[in-house]
Write a structure and sequence with these properties.
The protein is mainly beta. Strands 1-3-6-5 form a four-stranded antiparallel sheet, with no helix packed on it. Strands 2-8-7-4 form a four-stranded mixed sheet, with no helix packed on it. Strands 14-13-16-17 form a four-stranded antiparallel sheet, with no helix packed on it. The termini are far apart.
């Protein structure tokens, strides 16, 4: 009877192994079915989703760079949520530019990007979990060098007691990249051969003689660059 018992035992073991095998396969398939790709998005103005409750997956911004500019990099934040809480971040940048990642609290990350390309920079950030599921977001960063300021001025007679008393107003001058924080910080007038530099756009001058005078103005922006000098002929009458 022993051989028959051994055969019965072997069949029992095989059945158990087959049960375990199919059971593990079912659980693995269940994991594959339930596994979702990581949920990744930008953090914009402190918010992770728009008013419709959807992640910010596309960000458009700009960066002004240059030799005199203090800004050479662009910093932004992303949030990543994953069921397994086990994922990696991958990046695609133009010309393999550098990206530095710092992990913050609440599943957020701070990324700093150093572009070397002037113009449109498309940066793709992808979160990949252990099972190969992935989600991506896209940063469209417009990088440009400093734009020079434009000088402009008007003039008017200031008083009647002294006929040669005039005021020159350069407040209509402007910086071409004012929408990105650029502004005029210095005004340099040249009147009757006299150079007058001030952080104020208004200059008063008293001419001693009637006649025609060439007035010059150039302005400086907050990146330290001077724009092109303009000239006007002013007829001074007493």
């Amino acid at each position: 009877m022993e051989p028959e018992n051994d055969e019965t035992m072997n069949r029992f073991v095989i059945i158990c192994l087959l049960f375990l095998l199919y059971s593990c396969e079912d659980r693995w398939n269940e994991v594959l079915v339930e596994n979702l790709p990581p949920d990744i998005g930008f953090i914009i103005d402190g918010e992770t989703k728009n008013l419709s409750g959807v992640r910010y997956t596309y960000l458009v911004d700009s960066l002004k760079i240059g030799l005199k500019s203090a800004e050479q990099s662009f910093t932004f934040e992303v949030v990543v949520e994953d069921d397994n809480d086990s994922f990696e971040l991958e990046y695609f940048t133009p010309e393999n530019n550098k990206i530095e990642v710092v992990k913050l609290e609440n599943k957020t990350f701070q990324l700093t990007y150093w572009p070397e390309k002037i113009g449109e920079n498309l940066v793709k950030i992808t979160a990949i979990d252990d099972l190969g599921e992935s989600s991506s977001i896209l940063l469209n960063l417009k990088v440009f060098e400093n734009l020079l300021p434009i000088a402009s001025f008007t003039f008017s007679r200031k008083g009647t007691i002294r006929s040669g008393h005039y005021e020159f107003d350069g407040s209509s001058s402007y910086d071409l990249d004012s929408e990105y924080g650029g502004r005029v910080i210095m005004y340099q007038f040249e009147i009757d051969g006299i150079q007058i530099q001030s952080d104020k756009p208004y200059v008063e001058f008293i001419f001693q003689d009637a006649g025609q005078y060439e007035i010059k103005l150039k302005v400086q922006d907050n990146d330290g660059d001077w724009g092109e000098e303009i000239r006007k002929l002013v007829e001074v009458n007493f």
